[in-house]
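Example 3.2
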Amino acid sequence: MNTRILIVEDEFIEANNLKLILKAAGYDVCSIARSVATALIVIEKENPHIVLIDIFLQGDLTGIDLAKKLETKSIPFVFISANSNKQILDAAKSTRPYGFLVKPFRKNDVLVMLDVAWYLHQHKQGTIDSTETISNEPKEPLSDKEFRNIIGKSPDIIDLLNKIKIVSQCNTSVLILGESGTGKELVAREIHQASSRRTKPLIVVNCAALPANLIESELFGHEKGAFTGALSKRTGKFEQADEGTIFLDEIGELPLELQVKFLRVLQEREIEPIGGKPKKINVRVLAATNKDLGEEVAAGRFRIDLYYRLNVFPLLLPSLRERKEDIALLASHFLKKYSTEEGRQLCTLSTEAIEKLMQYNWPGNIRELENTIQRNVVLAKGTVIESIEIFTSKRAANVTNTNKIGFKTITENERDHILAVLESCNWKISGKGGAAEILDINVNTLNSRMKKLGIQRN
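Structure, written as tokens:
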């Protein structure tokens, strides 16, 4: 039985274009709905598997209202819109869509998004078959050994591994999100190694480290004589990654004028070196950032169309404080690594040392834990590290000393402020008069901040 898709779109040309794309790809298309009321009738009669929804429709109700109803029915849905209003986008994201297509879109964007949405939905339902996609293309199953470099058994890490298994078999762009030190580059390498491009190059680029006057040349290349000082031809990073994968770390630092050229790479699969002619390339794009790109879009520092081209399959990496049950496993891994590197007998940690690791908050995440273990292996006088030393910078020490005379850190002030607001509204989080409205932030953002700051109602 073919998959049935419902299109909820009030623009005839857009709806018909989508219908032609889907039918050509072998999908069954339900009756097109131009309002929420019509969509609900079609859903009851034709039972679609996936729904594509525009945000603004005919009638008083919006696509966001329909999305809330679909969520209760466990029907996967993808938004299609060109809207860039932050409040509307936050409301749309709060419905937990399976994807977001930005108009105008290409045929491949639509088909990849549907493929990913179906994978995510099946995984959520616990019925996913790792060897099939919605389009029934054969996929090579993966073994967990292929992800042995990602250490951990916490629920967050198991969920992350499952998502890596899914996305590694596609060619879609992936946006890797997480705090500094959570292992974003490691995840990118694992995705590449598990993909069909594993024998081709993986080119890693740190956008924040590229000089502003050279970044275009670094990424796209230049011809000899293209500008003063261009004494020879230069092959850019994208061309170096042809047939393989490019990983763009700190993508939020990419200047606006270059975001346009990057968008062209994603849309047209071609680059244009400085002083040269456009060239077709076949490259998979992985990107990472520790910034909130939604806020960057709202502030006008990041293009919304680029954001959603990248955000087809986001991967959110948990901080180390959110997966403390993995600390002992990670510590053991780094102990073996650095004991071997130092050419000494394997070091172990005492119970007291492990407890100290568990109690620390790890603002630098896994990178800070690794550095801590390496330092203590070097300093160890025997095979058992009885008391572990956790190094803090002078700046951190100064903050601690300042706290003793009455000042609080920004984090402590934020926690106190959120608590005060929650108390003032009797711990009502969402809705009229709720804490999210008072703080002027999205409900999901508030819940995330509460979790990170350890705020719970007694």
